[in-house]
Amino acid sequence: MGEYYFHLDQLTVGYNGKPLIDQIQVGIHKGEIVTLIGPNGSGKSTILKSITRQLKILGGKVLYEENDLHKLSYKELSTRIAVVLTERMRPELMTCHDIVATGRYPYTGRLGILSREDENKVDEAMRIVHAEELGSRDFNAISDGQRQRVLLARAICQEPEIIVLDEPTSFLDIRHKLELLSILRSMAKEKGITVIMSLHEIDLAQKIADQILCVKGDHVCYYGTPEQIFEEQTIRELYGIENGFYDPRFGSIELPKVEGEPEVFVIAGCGRGIPIYRKLQKDNIPFATGILYTNDVDYQLARLLAARVITEEPFCQITQEHLREAIKVMENCKKVICADVPIGECNKGLEELIRAAKKRM
Amino acid sequence: MKKRKEALQGATDFHYENFLRRSRYTSVFLVLLAAFCVITVLNINTGNVDISIPKILKIIFLREGNKMEYNIIWKIRLPRILMAAILGGALSLSGFLLQTFFENPIAGPFVLGISSGAKMVVALTMIYFLGRFQVVSSYTLIIAAFIGSLIATGFILLVSRRINHMATLLVAGIMIGYICSAVTDFVVTFAEDSDIVNLHGWSQGSFSGMNWSNVKVAAVVIGVTILITFFMSKPIGAYQLGEAYAQSMGVNIRFFRIMLILTSSVLSACVTAFAGPISFVGIAVPYLVKRSLGTSRPLIVIPATFLGGGVFCMMCDLIARMAFAPLELNISTVTSIFGAPVVIFMMLHRKKGN
């Protein structure tokens, strides 16, 4: 058990003495990024609050370098763990520089006056998050993206070994999301700072996290690397997705397919089908498509959106059997759309399909 | 001077910014100090008996002059002025601490009913002690006021734990204020004649009738409390970001909250014990001071609020004495006239800000 840097051992967490999640067993190595995912209200924040001692733990232990975290004093804790919280704060008359400087709290003297060294650390933290120009701005007058960066700078300036963030990317647009996560990534990998955070965006979680903790209501359902966790079925269960799809390979989300007998047949391949699939999906028209190699990008979307997909093994010539099947399906459709598919040696069979389509006209 | 210029040129914008801020703080303090001096002189100078400034200086520094003028200054005006300054400062600071505690800029000892709670217990104690022993010591009154403050604060805390909503909190405070005032009025009505004279003036709020022993007691109690508060400015600064952040920075929240409640209660209890309840100072002064300083940094705001509160109350007391002389107004009447509009402005401004 001793090999972990930060270890949740049989941890039970909850509010007001009522356990919410129990038996949490998680081991974290130094410099790892651990992401908590799960539906709203599933207890991600409760876990984060418990490991930062804002909530009393109801059972088990949190071990930090084999010390019981709940036996450290608040002061000792403050030089090890820094937080970025979701609660919106509205500090009065404080500039961003002031906010970042509060991170130096554990290191300043009795009256909290910043030394030159402290000032330099503040400047450096602002530089790391690219917020130098915000220094003299009022904290209440900046955008959400800037605010998150300033709060992250505050945490960095506290020189912690672990940073805990509660949904740091909510309210941010895509550019700021990426910026924030890449800062975290480099902090973890270059400075060995362990990052523990909750994220709403499972696609981002998959891309940034070394370990993922899936929290679902009353229990932790999975803990492991993104490759272990991101199976279509796992995500479906975790979030209880009944309408739509989540494609774990690319982290993309799709609305449910239009059910029913296919009305349109799309001759597609090589990614030419994707815009057509999307359009048909939006117009609520069930469609069939083919003949797609199972390694074609079109196939990745078609399998989620099309009512019927006729496929072929990768790198093989199209067999007569599949061709006949495609023609049969096509004959039952009212319309045929032929995307501009390049035809080469292998997929010569498509020419015959196109001829069949033309004959119908 | 030259050195400073060079240092400034070499520094980044931040540090130039810092320099600007420091100059601003310094000028605010200088203005407050100047106002303090002017109002002190005005206060000593004016009254039913006019005494010229050279005479005043002679009486204060050389301790010579005619007997009557000497007595007016040393026995009546000086203690009253000092008391107005000390208690005004204490009241403002108490307001600042309560605003920090409740994370609410409109919190203050008067609106939260804390002054009224203190008033009630003081009235009960006065009647009891005057009826039995004919005297009450200042310390007894302070302790009574302190107990009253804690009772009212305790009640507010109970309410705030259930409903943490700004408006609800204020309504609860105002209700507590009314209940305590009703009890006080009830007790005063049935008190013996000799007590009433004493109680009535006091329960309306006034700086009149202060003597040197009052000043000493108030100075010691408030002085110590302010010193403690000043050394709490670091955790107060952390607490301004919210409880969770403060804790993550290493503040022992439970201990800190208790200290905030105790210090703010001692301060407002002292004021109530000596001068009765005084309205709006606790909200208006911290707000004005923070705005003029352009910061809410406790290390600077705490002394400035104390000084500002002193100046504000001395000015209000001067007006209370002189506006309709020889009639004297309640101090609360004057502080309300100046303080209430500030509070209304604050609320409107806040709405806009959101």
UniProtKB/TrEMBL annotation, chain A:
GO terms for molecular function: ATP binding; ATP hydrolysis activity. The keyword Cell membrane applies. Signal peptide: none annotated. The keyword Transport applies. SMART domains: AAA. InterPro entries: AAA+_ATPase (IPR003593), ABC_transporter-like_ATP-bd (IPR003439), P-loop_NTPase (IPR027417), Siderophore_ABC-ATPase (IPR051535). It is a peripheral membrane protein. One of its GO terms (cellular component) is plasma membrane. Residues 6-242 form the ABC transporter domain. Pfam families: ABC_tran (PF00005). Its main location: membrane. Keywords: ATP-binding, Cell membrane, Ion transport, Iron, Iron transport, Membrane, Nucleotide-binding, Transport. It is found in: Cell membrane. GO terms for biological process: iron ion transport. This is ABC transporter ATP-binding protein. The lineage of its organism: Bacteria, Bacillati, Bacillota, Clostridia, Lachnospirales.
UniProtKB/TrEMBL annotation, chain B:
Gene3D superfamilies: ABC transporter involved in vitamin B12 uptake, BtuC. The chain crosses the membrane at residues 25-44, 78-98, 110-130, 136-159, 166-191, 211-231, 258-288, 300-320, 327-348. GO terms for cellular component: plasma membrane. One of its GO terms (molecular function) is transmembrane transporter activity. This is Iron ABC transporter permease. Keywords: Cell membrane, Membrane, Transmembrane, Transmembrane helix, Transport. It is a multi-pass membrane protein. It is found in: Cell membrane. GO terms for biological process: siderophore-iron import into cell. The keyword Transmembrane helix applies. Its main location: membrane. It holds the Pfam family FecCD. Belongs to the binding-protein-dependent transport system permease family. FecCD subfamily.
